[in-house]
């Protein structure tokens, strides 16, 4: 029978990655049974056979031999006079198997079948790709940069599948060139315009967690567990770890000898500072650990309100807060507590009394006061001490706004001094 280029077509289809052979055979069979139903109204007495090695397709029609005058259904019955032309030994009541020539369906029907076949295989590939990556969410994969756009990178995996790394999922310091290999974690898989899109991430907490698994065998072996990871991508991260073996120091194992294990991860994350801390259910101790590198003098913890007031030496306040408030923000995410930091210094040490910043709410906008308090500047003297540049660096306030606030505070102290005289 004519192959109608089906073999060449089949060779393309059977190359389809991740599609198992039985499924592919079933699709081919279904496509041609649909063709048969359109031409003959039914496919019940037809057998479609596909050779999974060569791609050859054969269609056989089964018909019962009846007397010439008893034919009621030409699809299911064949006159005796016709049957003996195929095989002289046939008799009434037997079944005749005839091989169909695919060209009998017509070129238009054949073309439609091939297009349907291509569409079905395309849907199978999409479904297979969706399942493959849905099962790999949270795993690290490597991709080669194929296209660079303003808002995202297009990568190719080892099978040539397209992966997307949005700008929002890249570390701020990331810079990639075409052809470069990128490591990222599979964040999610979604459908866009009926096509599966695999979204990668280098900023997600799971990326750091998986990097630790690769570098620290004790985590992979289950001797150490990562309890929680919080990140400000490219700036700082905090990782709480716990050991199930008292003989293993989880922090030491993660950091490695002279930082050997953690250094590779830091480089991958573009010099992101990583604080590895021992997990504990003691919230006071946990707060003390997550505020590292700052040293705490004392704290008041309200477990009902999930709030903690932390008191530190003046030179430790900025360490606890961190650059742009990153350290204290991550500490709050790690513990689930709202943490306010205060300078633990007696008033007489200043040589003059101090004034709470809220006392100036009639002269300073409340949002400006909140911005200062957010990073630990809650009194007049705490704002008058640092330079304008330092305050601007630690807050999101303009230098002009900071100068106005310092002027208001300074004038208040001057008025108090005049009153004292």
From TrEMBL:
SMART domains found in the cross-reference section: KH (SM00322), S1 (SM00316)
Subunit structure: Monomer. Binds directly to the core enzyme of the DNA-dependent RNA polymerase and to nascent RNA.
Pfam family, any one: KH_NusA_1st
Name the record gives this protein: Transcription termination/antitermination protein NusA
CDD domains (UniProt xref): KH-II_NusA_rpt1, KH-II_NusA_rpt2, S1_NusA
Major location (coarse): cytoplasm
Keywords: Cytoplasm, RNA-binding, Transcription, Transcription antitermination, Transcription regulation, Transcription termination
Domain S1 motif intervals: 138-203
Family statement: Belongs to the NusA family.
Compartments it resides in: Cytoplasm
SUPFAM superfamilies: Nucleic acid-binding proteins (SSF50249), Prokaryotic type KH domain (KH-domain type II) (SSF54814), Transcription factor NusA, N-terminal domain (SSF69705)
Transmembrane portions of the chain: none
């Amino acid at each position: 029978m004519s192959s109608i280029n089906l073999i060449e077509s089949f060779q393309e289809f059977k190359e389809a990655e991740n599609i198992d052979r039985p499924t592919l055979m079933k699709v081919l069979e279904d496509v041609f049974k649909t063709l048969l139903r359109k031409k003959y109204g039914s496919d019940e007495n037809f057998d479609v056979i596909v050779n999974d090695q060569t791609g050859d397709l054969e269609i056989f029609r089964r018909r019962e031999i009846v007397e010439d005058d008893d034919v009621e259904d030409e699809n299911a019955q064949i006159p005796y006079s016709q049957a003996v032309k195929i095989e002289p030994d046939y008799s009434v009541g037997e079944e005749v198997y005839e091989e169909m020539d695919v060209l009998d369906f017509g070129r238009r029907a054949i073309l439609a079948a091939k297009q349907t076949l291509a569409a079905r295989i395309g849907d199978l590939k999409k479904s297979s790709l969706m399942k493959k990556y849905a099962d790999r969410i949270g795993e690290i994969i490597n991709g080669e940069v194929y296209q660079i756009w303003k808002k995202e990178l297009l990568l190719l995996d080892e099978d040539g599948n397209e992966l997307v790394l949005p700008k929002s999922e890249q570390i701020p310091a990331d810079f990639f060139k075409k052809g470069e290999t990128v490591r990222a974690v599979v964040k999610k898989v979604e459908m866009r315009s009926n096509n599966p899109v695999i979204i990668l991430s280098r900023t997600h907490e799971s990326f750091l967690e998986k990097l630790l698994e690769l570098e620290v065998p004790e985590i992979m072996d289950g001797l150490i567990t990562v309890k929680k990871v919080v990140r400000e991508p490219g700036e700082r991260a905090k990782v709480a770890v716990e050991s199930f073996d008292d003989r293993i120091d989880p922090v030491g194992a993660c950091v490695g000898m002279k930082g050997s294990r953690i250094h590779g991860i830091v480089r991958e994350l573009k010099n992101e500072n990583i604080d590895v801390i021992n997990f504990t259910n003691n919230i006071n101790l946990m707060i003390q650990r997550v505020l590292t590198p700052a040293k705490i003098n004392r704290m008041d913890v309200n477990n009902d309100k999930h709030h903690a007031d932390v008191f530190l030496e003046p030179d430790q306040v900025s360490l606890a807060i961190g650059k742009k408030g990153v350290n204290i923000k991550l500490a709050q995410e790690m513990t689930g507590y709202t943490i306010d930091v205060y300078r633990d210094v007696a008033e007489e040490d200043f040589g003059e009394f101090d004034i709470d910043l809220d006392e100036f709410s009639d002269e300073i906008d409340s949002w400006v006061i909140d911005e200062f308090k957010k990073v630990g500047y809650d009194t007049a003297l705490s704002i008058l001490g640092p330079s304008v540049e330092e305050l601007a660096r630690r807050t999101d306030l303009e230098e002009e706004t900071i100068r106005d606030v310092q002027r208001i505070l300074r004038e208040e102290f001057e008025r108090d001094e005049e009153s004292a005289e």
